[in-house]
Amino acid sequence: MSNTQIASIQTVESLVIPERLDGRHGTNRGDTAHSQLSASNDLDAVRAWLANYTDTKTTFDNYRKEAERLLLWAVVQLGKPLSSLTHEDLLLFKVFLANPQPENRWVSASGGKYPRGNARWRPFNGPLSPASQRQSLIILNGMFTWMVDASYLRGNPMALLRQRGKHTAPRVTRYLSMSLWDEVKAFVGQLPQDTAVQQAYAARCRWLTTLFYLQGMRLSEVAAGKMGDFSRRLGADGREQWWLDILGKGDRERIVPASPELIAELARYRKANGLPPLPARTDDTPLVIPFRGKSRCMSRSAVHDAIKSVFGHAADWLRARGPEFTDRADELDRASAHWLRHTSGSHQADGGVDLRTVRDNLGHVSLNTTSLYLHEEEDKRHRETVKRHRMNWETPPAAEPGPAKHDP
C-alpha cells in the first residue's frame, strides 16, 4: 500500500486491504467455529467493534482514529495483518506513536488538519503527547479484549505491554487564576465596536466567555446546545428560576442553574443578533450563533477556534502593555475551552460553593474529581507554612577588623 493510497483513505468503512493482509489467516485468529462474530477478516471485526459506539460521535471518532492508525501501521509498515500482531510488534508501535516515521508517509504537511479526501491528509498531525499515547493504548487494549471475548482472536497481545501507572495529579493545573481571568474580561470589555463586524465579534466573545465560565460546560456541550435548552420555572419561594438542560459526556443529562446574570447576558447576546431577548422552549437557535448560517450549530473545532482566538488576542493585548506581562500572556496562549471549564470549577470550589453542587453543575460522577478543583486549601497551607515554620537562624554579629593573620 503506497503513500498515495494512505492519503486517499476516507474511513474504516471504505478501507480496502489486500486478501493476504486482511487477517482471515492471521496467526492469532481464534476458533472460527465458535466465533460470535460473522466477520471473517480484521477490517470487518474492527467495524463490528466500532458499531458499539455509533451513538456517541466523539467516542466513535476517537476509537475509529486509533483503530485506523494501528491497522494502517500493521499493513503498511510491517506488512502484517492486525490479527497476526505480537507483543514485540506492539512494543514497536508504542515507539511509533511517539514519533511516526517516515514523516512524509504518516504526518500531515506542516502538522495541519486536512479532510480525509485531501491529498495532504495523513493519519497523524505530529508525534503524540504521552497522555495521547496512553489513551491510544487504552482504546486499542479495549478493542483487542473485545475481539478475544468474541473468540475472533485467541489472545490479547496488548495485555502483555507494561503499562506505567498514571499518577493522578493532586490538583487541576490548567485553569486561569482569578487575576488572569480578570485580564481576559478586561480585554473583552475593551473590544472596539465601531462597525457591525466589530460589534458581532465583541458580542460573541463576551457571550462565549460568559457561557463557558458561568456554566462550566464542555466544548462539545456548547457546540451542540440550543437556546431552547434554557427553561424557567417557579421555585418554592415563588420566584422565577432559570435552568439550562445539558446533554453531557456519555449522553448523561444534567440541568444547571442559570443565574440572573447569565440570563441578562443571554438577552444581550440575542438582541445583538436581532432576536427577542428570551428564548422559547422551541427555539432551535444555536447557543453560539455562527456569523453565517445562523440556524446551524457551530462545529466543535469552530467553537474551539473561537475561544482560542479570544485567549490569543488577549495574550497579544497583554504583551503590548510591557515585558512584565510576557509570562501571563504565554499562559493565556496555552489556554483553551477546557481551561475555562477548569476555571469555572476552581473558582466555584475556592469561592465556597459546596463541592456537591459543583459536582452536579459540571456533570462529574464522583466528588473525587471535583475535589481536584480546590486550590484555596493549598494557598492557605502555603501561607501558614511560610509564616509559622521557620529556621530563625541568628544573624552573627559583624566581625570587627583586626590585625592580619599569616600562616606560620
Automatic annotation (TrEMBL):
Residues 44-148 form the Core-binding (CB) domain. It comes from the Bacteria. The keyword Coiled coil does not apply. Residues 376-408 are annotated as: Disordered. Coiled coil: none annotated. InterPro entries: CB, DNA_brk_join_enz, Integrase-like_cat_sf, Integrase_catalytic, Integrase_recombinase_N, Tyrosine_recombinase_XerCD. One of its GO terms (cellular component) is cytoplasm. Pfam families: Phage_integrase. Its main location: cytoplasm. One of its GO terms (molecular function) is DNA binding. Keywords: Cell cycle, Cell division, Chromosome partition, Cytoplasm, DNA integration, DNA recombination, DNA-binding. One of its GO terms (biological process) is DNA integration. Residues 171-388 form the Tyr recombinase domain. It is found in: Cytoplasm. PANTHER family: PHAGE INTEGRASE-RELATED, TYROSINE RECOMBINASE XERC. This is Tyrosine-type recombinase/integrase. It comes from Paraburkholderia madseniana.
